[in-house]
Amino acid sequence: MAITTINSNLLYKIIIVISFLALTTCPVASAEECTSNHEGECHNRSEALKYKIIAIFAILVTSMIGVTLPTLSRIVPAIHPDRDLFALVKAFASGVILATGYMHVLPDSFNDLMSDCLPENPWHKFPFTTFIAMFSAIFTLMVDSFTISFFKKRIPASSSTSDVSEKNIEVNGGCREVNKELELLSHSHTHGHEIEHGNGNMKVVSAEQLLRYRVISQVLELGIVVHSVVIGLSLGASDNQCTIRPLIAALCFHQIFEGMGLGGCILQAEYGIKMKCIMVFFFSVTTPFGIALGIALSKVYTDTSPTSLIVEGVLNAVSAGLLNYMALVELLATDFMGSKLQSRVKLQIFSYLFVLLGAGGMSVMAIWA
Hints:
Layout: H1 2-35, H2 45-68, H3 84-113, H4 120-123, H5 128-152, E1 166-172, E2 175-176, H6 180-183, E3 202-206, H7 207-237, H8 241-268, H9 273-296, H10 306-336, H11 339-342, H12 345-364
Helix pairs in contact: 2-8, 2-9, 3-5, 3-8, 3-10, 3-12, 5-7, 5-10, 7-8, 7-9, 7-10, 8-9
Protein backbone atom coordinates (compact mmCIF):
# COMPACT_ATOMS: atom_id res chain seq x y z
CA MET A 1 0.00 0.00 0.00
CA ALA A 2 2.86 2.36 0.86
CA ILE A 3 4.67 1.39 -2.34
CA THR A 4 1.57 2.20 -4.36
CA THR A 5 1.27 5.58 -2.66
CA ILE A 6 4.95 6.34 -3.29
CA ASN A 7 4.65 5.31 -6.94
CA SER A 8 1.56 7.46 -7.35
CA ASN A 9 3.28 10.44 -5.79
CA LEU A 10 6.34 9.89 -7.97
CA LEU A 11 4.20 9.58 -11.10
CA TYR A 12 2.33 12.74 -10.16
CA LYS A 13 5.62 14.63 -9.70
CA ILE A 14 6.90 13.38 -13.06
CA ILE A 15 3.73 14.58 -14.78
CA ILE A 16 4.09 18.01 -13.15
CA VAL A 17 7.75 18.27 -14.22
CA ILE A 18 6.93 17.25 -17.81
CA SER A 19 4.05 19.72 -17.97
CA PHE A 20 6.22 22.48 -16.58
CA LEU A 21 8.94 21.76 -19.12
CA ALA A 22 6.41 21.71 -21.96
CA LEU A 23 4.92 25.03 -20.92
CA THR A 24 8.32 26.68 -20.55
CA THR A 25 9.90 25.28 -23.71
CA CYS A 26 6.96 25.77 -26.13
CA PRO A 27 7.06 29.58 -26.06
CA VAL A 28 10.82 29.50 -26.64
CA ALA A 29 10.41 27.19 -29.62
CA SER A 30 7.59 29.34 -30.97
CA ALA A 31 9.71 32.47 -30.56
CA GLU A 32 12.57 30.83 -32.44
CA GLU A 33 10.23 29.89 -35.26
CA CYS A 34 8.79 33.39 -35.40
CA THR A 35 12.15 35.15 -35.52
CA SER A 36 14.10 32.69 -37.63
CA ASN A 37 14.84 33.20 -41.30
CA HIS A 38 13.47 30.07 -42.89
CA GLU A 39 15.97 28.54 -45.26
CA GLY A 40 15.40 26.02 -48.04
CA GLU A 41 15.47 25.53 -51.78
CA CYS A 42 12.70 28.09 -52.22
CA HIS A 43 14.51 30.75 -50.18
CA ASN A 44 17.09 32.42 -52.37
CA ARG A 45 17.51 36.13 -51.82
CA SER A 46 19.13 36.95 -55.18
CA GLU A 47 16.62 34.90 -57.20
CA ALA A 48 13.72 36.30 -55.24
CA LEU A 49 14.98 39.84 -55.93
CA LYS A 50 14.82 39.19 -59.70
CA TYR A 51 11.18 38.12 -59.43
CA LYS A 52 10.38 41.15 -57.26
CA ILE A 53 11.78 43.53 -59.89
CA ILE A 54 9.74 41.72 -62.55
CA ALA A 55 6.70 42.01 -60.29
CA ILE A 56 7.14 45.80 -59.93
CA PHE A 57 7.04 46.42 -63.67
CA ALA A 58 4.44 43.72 -64.49
CA ILE A 59 2.00 44.91 -61.83
CA LEU A 60 2.57 48.58 -62.74
CA VAL A 61 1.75 47.91 -66.40
CA THR A 62 -1.29 45.70 -65.72
CA SER A 63 -2.61 48.19 -63.15
CA MET A 64 -2.42 51.01 -65.68
CA ILE A 65 -4.07 48.89 -68.35
CA GLY A 66 -6.92 47.87 -66.05
CA VAL A 67 -7.75 51.30 -64.66
CA THR A 68 -7.49 53.08 -68.03
CA LEU A 69 -9.50 50.56 -70.09
CA PRO A 70 -12.88 52.17 -69.24
CA THR A 71 -11.59 55.52 -70.51
CA LEU A 72 -11.29 54.02 -74.00
CA SER A 73 -15.03 54.50 -74.44
CA ARG A 74 -14.20 57.41 -76.76
CA ILE A 75 -12.37 55.02 -79.07
CA VAL A 76 -14.56 51.97 -78.48
CA PRO A 77 -18.20 53.12 -78.13
CA ALA A 78 -19.24 49.60 -77.06
CA ILE A 79 -17.70 50.13 -73.60
CA HIS A 80 -19.37 53.50 -73.02
CA PRO A 81 -21.07 53.66 -69.56
CA ASP A 82 -24.47 53.82 -71.24
CA ARG A 83 -23.94 50.56 -73.13
CA ASP A 84 -24.77 47.03 -72.01
CA LEU A 85 -21.18 45.79 -72.34
CA PHE A 86 -20.00 48.34 -69.80
CA ALA A 87 -22.65 47.14 -67.34
CA LEU A 88 -21.44 43.55 -67.75
CA VAL A 89 -17.76 44.47 -67.40
CA LYS A 90 -18.51 46.54 -64.31
CA ALA A 91 -20.50 43.64 -62.80
CA PHE A 92 -17.54 41.33 -63.41
CA ALA A 93 -15.11 43.82 -61.84
CA SER A 94 -17.43 44.33 -58.86
CA GLY A 95 -17.39 40.57 -58.30
CA VAL A 96 -13.58 40.69 -58.35
CA ILE A 97 -13.56 43.46 -55.72
CA LEU A 98 -16.04 41.54 -53.56
CA ALA A 99 -13.95 38.37 -53.73
CA THR A 100 -10.82 40.38 -52.96
CA GLY A 101 -12.34 41.48 -49.67
CA TYR A 102 -13.79 38.12 -48.64
CA MET A 103 -11.32 35.62 -50.14
CA HIS A 104 -7.99 37.44 -49.95
CA VAL A 105 -7.89 40.33 -47.51
CA LEU A 106 -10.09 38.92 -44.73
CA PRO A 107 -8.30 35.51 -44.52
CA ASP A 108 -4.93 37.30 -44.52
CA SER A 109 -6.06 39.34 -41.54
CA PHE A 110 -7.21 36.21 -39.72
CA ASN A 111 -3.84 34.56 -40.37
CA ASP A 112 -1.99 37.60 -39.06
CA LEU A 113 -4.01 38.35 -35.94
CA MET A 114 -4.49 34.66 -35.00
CA SER A 115 -0.85 33.76 -35.60
CA ASP A 116 0.98 31.57 -33.08
CA CYS A 117 3.64 34.28 -33.01
CA LEU A 118 1.24 36.57 -31.13
CA PRO A 119 0.43 36.13 -27.43
CA GLU A 120 -2.56 34.02 -26.50
CA ASN A 121 -4.07 36.93 -24.62
CA PRO A 122 -5.69 38.94 -26.12
CA TRP A 123 -5.19 37.94 -29.79
CA HIS A 124 -6.50 34.39 -29.51
CA LYS A 125 -9.28 35.27 -27.09
CA PHE A 126 -11.23 37.67 -29.29
CA PRO A 127 -12.02 37.79 -33.06
CA PHE A 128 -10.29 41.11 -33.74
CA THR A 129 -10.42 40.66 -37.53
CA THR A 130 -14.20 40.59 -37.83
CA PHE A 131 -14.54 43.23 -35.10
CA ILE A 132 -12.27 45.68 -36.96
CA ALA A 133 -13.83 44.84 -40.35
CA MET A 134 -17.32 45.46 -38.95
CA PHE A 135 -16.42 48.91 -37.62
CA SER A 136 -14.51 49.66 -40.81
CA ALA A 137 -17.71 49.05 -42.80
CA ILE A 138 -19.68 51.27 -40.41
CA PHE A 139 -17.03 53.98 -40.63
CA THR A 140 -17.14 53.78 -44.43
CA LEU A 141 -20.89 54.27 -44.29
CA MET A 142 -20.37 57.30 -42.05
CA VAL A 143 -17.84 58.83 -44.44
CA ASP A 144 -20.16 58.14 -47.37
CA SER A 145 -23.17 59.66 -45.60
CA PHE A 146 -21.46 62.74 -44.17
CA THR A 147 -19.62 63.49 -47.40
CA ILE A 148 -22.82 63.41 -49.44
CA SER A 149 -24.61 65.56 -46.84
CA PHE A 150 -21.79 68.09 -46.87
CA PHE A 151 -21.63 68.47 -50.63
CA LYS A 152 -25.40 68.48 -51.04
CA LYS A 153 -25.45 71.68 -49.03
CA ARG A 154 -23.09 73.25 -51.57
CA ILE A 155 -25.57 72.66 -54.39
CA PRO A 156 -27.69 75.80 -54.81
CA ALA A 157 -31.39 75.48 -54.09
CA SER A 158 -32.15 76.04 -57.76
CA SER A 159 -30.52 72.71 -58.61
CA SER A 160 -33.12 70.83 -56.60
CA THR A 161 -36.23 72.71 -57.64
CA SER A 162 -36.34 71.80 -61.30
CA ASP A 163 -36.64 68.41 -62.91
CA VAL A 164 -35.89 66.59 -59.65
CA SER A 165 -32.30 67.86 -59.31
CA GLU A 166 -31.52 67.15 -62.93
CA LYS A 167 -29.45 69.44 -65.10
CA ASN A 168 -29.14 69.52 -68.84
CA ILE A 169 -25.64 69.66 -70.24
CA GLU A 170 -25.65 70.86 -73.83
CA VAL A 171 -22.92 69.93 -76.27
CA ASN A 172 -22.43 72.15 -79.31
CA GLY A 173 -19.90 70.69 -81.70
CA GLY A 174 -16.59 70.18 -79.86
CA CYS A 175 -17.32 72.72 -77.12
CA ARG A 176 -18.73 71.36 -73.88
CA GLU A 177 -20.20 73.55 -71.18
CA VAL A 178 -21.22 72.44 -67.72
CA ASN A 179 -23.61 74.19 -65.36
CA LYS A 180 -21.88 75.97 -62.48
CA GLU A 181 -23.95 74.00 -59.99
CA LEU A 182 -22.22 70.78 -61.05
CA GLU A 183 -18.79 72.36 -60.82
CA LEU A 184 -19.35 72.81 -57.10
CA LEU A 185 -19.41 69.02 -56.72
CA SER A 186 -15.79 68.64 -57.73
CA HIS A 187 -13.21 68.21 -54.99
CA SER A 188 -10.72 70.16 -57.04
CA HIS A 189 -11.16 73.23 -59.25
CA THR A 190 -11.95 72.21 -62.79
CA HIS A 191 -13.00 74.17 -65.84
CA GLY A 192 -15.49 71.63 -67.06
CA HIS A 193 -16.30 67.92 -67.28
CA GLU A 194 -15.77 65.75 -70.31
CA ILE A 195 -19.19 64.21 -70.89
CA GLU A 196 -19.50 61.24 -73.21
CA HIS A 197 -22.61 60.99 -75.35
CA GLY A 198 -24.03 57.94 -77.04
CA ASN A 199 -26.49 59.77 -79.27
CA GLY A 200 -28.06 63.20 -79.57
CA ASN A 201 -26.76 66.56 -78.43
CA MET A 202 -28.34 66.52 -74.98
CA LYS A 203 -27.65 64.46 -71.90
CA VAL A 204 -29.57 64.73 -68.63
CA VAL A 205 -27.24 64.55 -65.63
CA SER A 206 -28.35 64.19 -62.03
CA ALA A 207 -26.23 66.34 -59.74
CA GLU A 208 -26.91 64.02 -56.81
CA GLN A 209 -25.99 60.92 -58.83
CA LEU A 210 -22.79 62.56 -60.02
CA LEU A 211 -21.93 63.34 -56.41
CA ARG A 212 -22.47 59.70 -55.42
CA TYR A 213 -20.21 58.50 -58.22
CA ARG A 214 -17.46 60.79 -56.97
CA VAL A 215 -17.76 59.68 -53.36
CA ILE A 216 -17.84 56.02 -54.44
CA SER A 217 -14.72 56.34 -56.60
CA GLN A 218 -12.66 58.08 -53.92
CA VAL A 219 -13.67 55.85 -51.00
CA LEU A 220 -13.19 52.73 -53.13
CA GLU A 221 -9.72 53.84 -54.15
CA LEU A 222 -8.83 54.45 -50.50
CA GLY A 223 -9.63 50.84 -49.60
CA ILE A 224 -7.77 49.49 -52.62
CA VAL A 225 -4.69 51.61 -51.88
CA VAL A 226 -4.49 50.40 -48.27
CA HIS A 227 -4.72 46.77 -49.33
CA SER A 228 -2.27 47.23 -52.22
CA VAL A 229 0.44 48.71 -50.00
CA VAL A 230 0.09 45.88 -47.48
CA ILE A 231 0.24 43.08 -50.06
CA GLY A 232 3.11 44.80 -51.89
CA LEU A 233 5.06 45.12 -48.65
CA SER A 234 4.57 41.43 -47.89
CA LEU A 235 5.71 40.40 -51.36
CA GLY A 236 8.73 42.71 -51.29
CA ALA A 237 9.90 41.42 -47.90
CA SER A 238 9.57 37.75 -48.85
CA ASP A 239 12.53 35.68 -50.05
CA ASN A 240 10.38 32.70 -51.04
CA GLN A 241 10.66 32.58 -54.82
CA CYS A 242 8.26 29.61 -54.99
CA THR A 243 5.56 31.85 -53.53
CA ILE A 244 6.47 34.99 -55.47
CA ARG A 245 6.22 33.40 -58.95
CA PRO A 246 2.51 32.44 -58.85
CA LEU A 247 1.75 35.54 -56.80
CA ILE A 248 2.91 37.78 -59.66
CA ALA A 249 0.42 36.21 -62.08
CA ALA A 250 -2.39 36.33 -59.51
CA LEU A 251 -1.74 39.98 -58.67
CA CYS A 252 -1.61 40.97 -62.35
CA PHE A 253 -5.01 39.36 -62.90
CA HIS A 254 -6.27 41.00 -59.74
CA GLN A 255 -5.01 44.47 -60.68
CA ILE A 256 -6.48 44.38 -64.19
CA PHE A 257 -10.04 43.62 -63.14
CA GLU A 258 -9.97 45.58 -59.89
CA GLY A 259 -8.63 48.49 -61.93
CA MET A 260 -11.48 48.10 -64.41
CA GLY A 261 -13.98 48.36 -61.56
CA LEU A 262 -12.31 51.48 -60.20
CA GLY A 263 -11.82 52.93 -63.70
CA GLY A 264 -15.53 52.54 -64.40
CA CYS A 265 -16.34 54.49 -61.22
CA ILE A 266 -13.83 57.20 -62.15
CA LEU A 267 -15.35 57.47 -65.63
CA GLN A 268 -18.88 57.75 -64.28
CA ALA A 269 -17.75 60.43 -61.82
CA GLU A 270 -16.97 62.72 -64.78
CA TYR A 271 -13.77 64.10 -63.25
CA GLY A 272 -11.52 66.52 -65.06
CA ILE A 273 -8.36 65.21 -66.65
CA LYS A 274 -6.17 66.28 -63.71
CA MET A 275 -8.20 64.40 -61.11
CA LYS A 276 -8.43 61.32 -63.34
CA CYS A 277 -4.66 61.26 -63.74
CA ILE A 278 -4.14 61.56 -59.98
CA MET A 279 -6.48 58.66 -59.20
CA VAL A 280 -5.01 56.48 -61.97
CA PHE A 281 -1.49 57.26 -60.73
CA PHE A 282 -2.16 56.31 -57.11
CA PHE A 283 -3.92 53.08 -58.05
CA SER A 284 -1.14 52.06 -60.42
CA VAL A 285 1.87 52.78 -58.21
CA THR A 286 0.73 51.69 -54.74
CA THR A 287 1.43 47.95 -55.14
CA PRO A 288 4.81 48.50 -56.87
CA PHE A 289 5.64 51.06 -54.18
CA GLY A 290 4.78 48.50 -51.50
CA ILE A 291 7.04 45.94 -53.18
CA ALA A 292 9.91 48.44 -53.42
CA LEU A 293 9.40 49.38 -49.76
CA GLY A 294 9.41 45.70 -48.78
CA ILE A 295 12.69 45.17 -50.66
CA ALA A 296 14.26 48.16 -48.89
CA LEU A 297 13.10 46.92 -45.49
CA SER A 298 13.71 43.21 -46.09
CA LYS A 299 16.82 43.15 -43.88
CA VAL A 300 15.03 44.65 -40.89
CA TYR A 301 11.46 43.64 -41.65
CA THR A 302 10.17 40.16 -40.85
CA ASP A 303 6.60 39.29 -41.68
CA THR A 304 6.43 36.99 -38.62
CA SER A 305 7.37 39.58 -36.00
CA PRO A 306 4.52 40.53 -33.64
CA THR A 307 4.58 44.19 -34.70
CA SER A 308 4.40 43.34 -38.40
CA LEU A 309 1.61 40.82 -37.85
CA ILE A 310 -0.49 43.28 -35.85
CA VAL A 311 0.01 46.18 -38.28
CA GLU A 312 -0.70 44.06 -41.37
CA GLY A 313 -3.61 42.29 -39.71
CA VAL A 314 -5.31 45.50 -38.62
CA LEU A 315 -4.80 47.20 -42.01
CA ASN A 316 -6.11 44.13 -43.83
CA ALA A 317 -9.18 44.00 -41.59
CA VAL A 318 -9.87 47.69 -42.20
CA SER A 319 -9.44 47.21 -45.95
CA ALA A 320 -11.67 44.11 -45.94
CA GLY A 321 -14.55 45.92 -44.25
CA LEU A 322 -14.21 48.87 -46.61
CA LEU A 323 -14.00 46.75 -49.78
CA ASN A 324 -16.90 44.51 -48.79
CA TYR A 325 -19.11 47.50 -48.04
CA MET A 326 -18.19 49.28 -51.26
CA ALA A 327 -18.63 46.16 -53.41
CA LEU A 328 -22.01 45.18 -51.96
CA VAL A 329 -23.61 48.54 -51.22
CA GLU A 330 -22.13 51.11 -53.57
CA LEU A 331 -21.34 48.99 -56.61
CA LEU A 332 -23.58 45.91 -56.80
CA ALA A 333 -26.66 47.19 -54.95
CA THR A 334 -26.55 50.56 -56.70
CA ASP A 335 -26.36 48.99 -60.15
CA PHE A 336 -28.79 46.12 -59.62
CA MET A 337 -31.38 48.33 -57.92
CA GLY A 338 -30.98 51.02 -60.56
CA SER A 339 -33.49 51.67 -63.29
CA LYS A 340 -31.32 50.26 -66.08
CA LEU A 341 -31.09 46.70 -64.73
CA GLN A 342 -34.50 46.75 -63.03
CA SER A 343 -36.21 47.50 -66.33
CA ARG A 344 -34.35 44.78 -68.23
CA VAL A 345 -34.52 41.34 -66.65
CA LYS A 346 -32.34 39.67 -69.29
CA LEU A 347 -29.49 42.15 -68.76
CA GLN A 348 -29.92 41.74 -65.01
CA ILE A 349 -29.52 37.95 -65.28
CA PHE A 350 -26.41 38.27 -67.44
CA SER A 351 -24.98 40.82 -65.00
CA TYR A 352 -25.45 38.38 -62.11
CA LEU A 353 -23.63 35.73 -64.13
CA PHE A 354 -20.74 38.11 -64.70
CA VAL A 355 -20.64 38.93 -60.98
CA LEU A 356 -20.36 35.21 -60.23
CA LEU A 357 -17.67 34.80 -62.87
CA GLY A 358 -15.63 37.66 -61.43
CA ALA A 359 -16.03 36.51 -57.83
CA GLY A 360 -15.37 32.89 -58.79
CA GLY A 361 -12.26 33.69 -60.82
CA MET A 362 -10.83 35.82 -58.05
CA SER A 363 -11.64 33.13 -55.50
CA VAL A 364 -9.66 30.59 -57.51
CA MET A 365 -6.71 33.00 -57.39
CA ALA A 366 -6.72 32.52 -53.60
CA ILE A 367 -5.03 29.15 -54.23
CA TRP A 368 -1.84 30.97 -55.25
CA ALA A 369 -2.26 34.38 -53.64
